[in-house]
Design a protein that fits this description.
Pathway: Nitrogen metabolism; (S)-allantoin degradation; (S)-ureidoglycolate from allantoate (aminidohydrolase route): step 1/1. This protein has 1 helix and 21 strands. The protein is mostly beta strands and 328 residues long. The strands form 5 sheets. Strands 12, 13, 15, 16, 17, 18, 19 and 21 form an 8-stranded antiparallel β-sheet that branches. A hairpin with a 5-residue loop joins strand 16 and strand 17. Bound molecules: allantoate ion (1AL).
Length: 328
């Protein structure tokens, strides 16, 4: 993976990320840092405290020190890179920023005793710019702290990485083997013109068309597809293909195939007609599979793909081994 921004943003609110504390948020709320949408701006729009910004903005410091914001990742994982985006902050961006990270177990309210490590050293920033900082730390983190020196506004903090699921939340349960939060990901697809196929694997229901995966209109007689690497090798028992919000651009039909550890493909759901704006659920059986390919005919959008099933024993061991290797 060369472009870390293709990895899920572990901090984004729609994956459960939360800005839990900040040194100051006088001008604009710390929570904006993890908004899923691109930063917006309307010039000459003043509230009682100043110009309104879709970001986190602190007061001008007059007595030294620096500002910070603490973010709990929605999904714990290995961070591969961070984007510090000063979009629209032109005369009030911080000249420098750094990022630290830590891992804690459970839900502690006080992180002062946590073992913080620097994952982005203090680095210069420009105004109105998305700064990408690759991160080289082969370990699991649950929280990050964004520091800005000395003060100012940052629109977004994106923390891209690989989800590392907690084996205690999967062992012995029937789970969604295609869920991003369980460690699944789309590894290949035919088209991502309008939106990322990983959107299909997000938690909850899609609220609009943009929250799903949508391909361009095909004119070549072919069809679109996406391959999901499952959270772990498992057996699928129920497939959900949700076309919610796709009223005039749902695929006409879809099929599912599973790939076993030897690389052979097996039918899981035969090609089946789909309706627009409908949550279709099918009882299915599958052999032990590591990947599932969704074929949609000919093109269109899928709001959510859920593959409920059971981890194999080897799959459960793999999840536990990865967690143990990456936790500190
Ligand atoms: N025009 C501004 O944006 N001024 C300031 N910020 C806000 N939000 O008004 C400032 O000085 O940092």
């Amino acid at each position: 993976m060369t472009d870390f921004t293709a990895l899920p943003d572990l901090a984004v609110r729609t994956l459960g990320g939360s800005v839990v504390a900040a040194s100051d948020e006088s001008f604009a709320a710390k929570e904006n840092l993890v908004n899923p949408w691109a930063p917006a701006f309307s010039p000459e729009t003043f509230g009682p405290k100043g110009q309104l910004y879709d970001g986190w903005e602190t007061a001008r410091r007059r007595s030294g020190g620096h500002d910070w914001a603490l973010v709990r990742l929605g999904l714990p994982g290995v961070v591969r890179g961070v984007v510090v985006d000063t979009a629209w902050f032109k005369g009030n961006y911080p000249p420098r920023a750094s990022v630290e990270a830590c891992a804690v177990d459970g839900y502690p309210a006080d992180l002062s005793g946590a073992d913080w490590v620097e994952i982005v050293p203090e680095s210069p920033l420009e105004g109105d710019t998305a700064h990408s900082f690759p991160v080289d730390a082969e370990r699991l983190f649950t929280h990050v702290r964004l520091n800005m020196f000395p003060d100012g506004g940052i629109a977004r903090l994106r923390v891209h990485g690989e989800v590392v699921p907690d084996p205690r939340l999967l062992a012995g349960l029937t789970v969604d083997l295609a869920a991003l939060e369980n460690g699944a990901r789309v590894t290949e697809c035919s088209d991502m013109f309008y939106s990322s196929p990983d959107n299909m694997l997000f938690p909850g229901l899609a609220r609009n068309q943009a929250e799903g995966w949508e391909t361009a209109r095909r004119r070549d007689g072919g069809h679109d597809w996406a391959v999901v690497r499952l959270a772990a090798p498992g057996v699928i028992r129920l497939a959900e293909i949700d076309t919610a919000n796709l009223k005039f651009n749902a695929p006409g039909s879809a099929a599912l195939h599973g790939r076993d550890a030897a690389g052979d493909w097996h039918p899981v759901l035969p090609r089946t007609d789909l309706l627009p704006d409908t949550r279709h659920r099918f009882r299915v059986t599958s052999p032990e599979v590591t990947h599932v390919r969704l074929d949609i005919h000919p093109d269109g959008g899928i709001a959510r793909l859920r593959l409920l099933g059971d981890l194999t024993e080897a799959g459960a061991r793999a999840v536990e081994g990865r967690w143990n290797a990456l936790k500190h």
